[in-house]
Amino acid sequence: MQHKVDKKRYAVKIVRLCDRPDEEQKVMREVEALARLDHPNIVRYYDSWKSRAPPNWQQISPWKQLPSSYSMSYPSGRRTGETESQNAAPDASATLSPYISSNSSESGPTASEAAVVEYSTVDVLHGDAPETEKRKSLNPLRLDPEPPVCLCIKTELCERETLKAWLRAHKEDRKRKEVTAWFVEILKGVMYIHCEGLIHRDLKPSNIFFSLSGRKIKIGDFGLVTTSQVDLGEAASHKSNYVGTSYYISPEQNKKENYGREVDIYALGITFFEMNYPFITDMEKDKVLTALRNDGIFPKHFKDHLYHEANIIKWMLTVDPQKRPSAEEVFSSETMKRLQRSSNKSKATIPLL
């Protein structure tokens, strides 16, 4: 989306609001969280508004749903109504990735060609929704008798490529120095989120973005954000809403226990491991991460090549949340300082083990 006056390009996440108050509350919680956060390593929020979709809304572009001071464009080859959710089940946040194009391929055009609008025809759904409702919602051509109300969230535009996509595309040329620098930026963003009394609850590579200039890390997708302590009732509900396999959920979440910001540290530990261990296949990823999560077992030779990284990851994946470090403790630790000194001197790539 490009503003006609300031000529700047923005991302717009368009979320169809369903008739379930709890789901609308979840979307509004994301807006409220984004509005209060202002940090260089967090996707910046600008504005939001509700709007009813026009007649035949599933067959036309969302251009007319925006204020008249904006114009919009798609990258070449993009088809109206095409979303990545048509080829995949909804994830934990149950909405499209909000800060990149909704093209089904994350490794598409360069940043300058990136789509500047999100258009979701999918209801906000979770694992407990009826299967028939899921099938209907995933059909982009199904016409509803009444156009739905949508929430439009305008944010900073980031590159199309997420950290997840970057990791897939760079298995043999990951620079240790670059990966460490990105990890530090993620830590800074998480430190700020926690200082604001919030828990992200959905940290993972697909929710970590890159700025259009300077390739700085930006944490996004605050659809599951909550306050700094979650009681048993909400913990059980949140656990039941996960769809598919999640490598990033902490042991205390799995047990449906009370939990706090320590869950973000656990998720970040898994993410940091992924950044330092290129997976060749999905089967390998499942095997390695399962062993790491369940038994604390690192792949052979990982500690030999990446000693400081292994110590930090092991610390962050401590099963007992009370013994797990805070983001600030990781950031200011001697191990982290040694890692930064070591990686800054290194021009080596991360090895395929």
From TrEMBL:
EC number: 2.7.11.1
Lineage summary: Eukaryota, Metazoa, Porifera, Demospongiae, Heteroscleromorpha
Name of protein: non-specific serine/threonine protein kinase
Residue stretches making up the Protein kinase domain: 1-336
Gene Ontology CC terms: cytoplasm; nucleus
SMART domains: S_TKc
InterPro entries for this protein: CC_SR_Kinase, Kinase-like_dom_sf, Prot_kinase_dom, Ser/Thr_kinase_AS
Molecular function as annotated in GO: ATP binding; eukaryotic translation initiation factor 2alpha kinase activity; translation initiation factor activity
SUPFAM superfamilies referenced in this protein's UniProt entry, alphabetically: Protein kinase-like (PK-like)
Listed PANTHER family: EUKARYOTIC TRANSLATION INITIATION FACTOR 2-ALPHA KINASE, EUKARYOTIC TRANSLATION INITIATION FACTOR 2-ALPHA KINASE EIF2-ALPHA KINASE -RELATED
Region feature (Disordered): 71-113, 328-353
